[in-house]
Design brief:
The chain is of the alpha/beta class. The protein has nine helices and seven strands; from the N terminus they run βαβααββααβαβαβαα.
Length: about 230
């Protein structure tokens, strides 16, 4: 690590519901640990440019929804090109995260998810990380090694919320295993799901900042698919 220091169609709605249920059942961070800390990781290889541009605007919602909960610190981590993997400082303002994201352009390269997982392990060993969010479309690494790292995050109490663009089956299986072994959740999306992705990312951010009660309140306000969270938390 170096520092720079579709909406699922009706047939797949059950996957979204399962994701929301899993978030609701994830143990909240212990009280008294201060501001929530969320690692927001993204694949910035060439195929991801359109999704990166969308996410640059979506991410502001995560801060907006957590401001009243005492705030959220987010660290942007991304990989691209030939072995490049970078992590930002911890950020607590949406304008700072937006500036950093809009300054990144995607480059062709292979996936480096293992680096993301290892980095998150190191970060939470320094200071508790509430959750890891990963947004990507492909896995080109040894699934067993990724599973081992995901299991270590599970032991540290850091759930991985895996957002999968597209439906490539081997990548889907790998993302699902990472989510399961870490105690997190998996959710598919596509190019037409910007609003839904915004709600789901915000739901995870709310969970990271305020735990289950905050997540329940958020679900009641948002309605739709996210409203399922309120029922699960109850």
């Amino acid at each position: 690590m170096t520092g720079d220091k579709k909406l699922p169609d009706k047939s797949s709605q059950s996957a979204v519901d399962a994701f929301l249920r899993k978030v609701a059942l994830t143990p909240a961070a212990p009280a008294g640990e201060g501001r929530g800390r969320l690692v927001f990781a993204m694949d910035a290889t060439a195929s991801r440019q359109p999704a990166w541009d969308r996410a640059s605007h979506i991410q502001a919602e995560m801060f907006a929804e957590t401001a009243a909960l005492g705030g959220l610190d987010i660290q942007l981590v991304y990989y691209r090109g030939f072995g490049e993997c970078k992590a930002s400082p911890w950020i607590n303002q949406s304008k700072d995260l937006l500036r950093r994201m809009t300054g990144v352009f995607c480059l062709a390269g292979q996936t480096q998810i293992a680096k993301i997982l290892k980095h998150t392990i190191r970060e939470t060993e320094r200071k508790k990380v509430a959750a890891l969010v990963f947004v990507g479309d492909c896995v080109e690494e040894d699934i067993d090694k990724l599973g081992h790292l995901a299991g270590r995050l599970g032991l540290l109490g850091v759930p991985c919320f895996m957002f999968h663009e597209g439906d490539e089956p081997l990548s889907r299986s790998a993302f699902q295993q990472i989510a399961r072994l870490s105690g997190g959740a998996y959710c598919p999306f596509d190019a037409n799901s910007a609003q839904h992705l915004r709600d789901l990312l915000s739901a995870v951010a709310v969970y990271a900042a305020g735990g289950r009660k905050a997540l329940e309140s958020y679900g009641q306000r948002k309605g739709g698919a996210v409203s399922l969270l309120a029922h699960q938390v109850k």
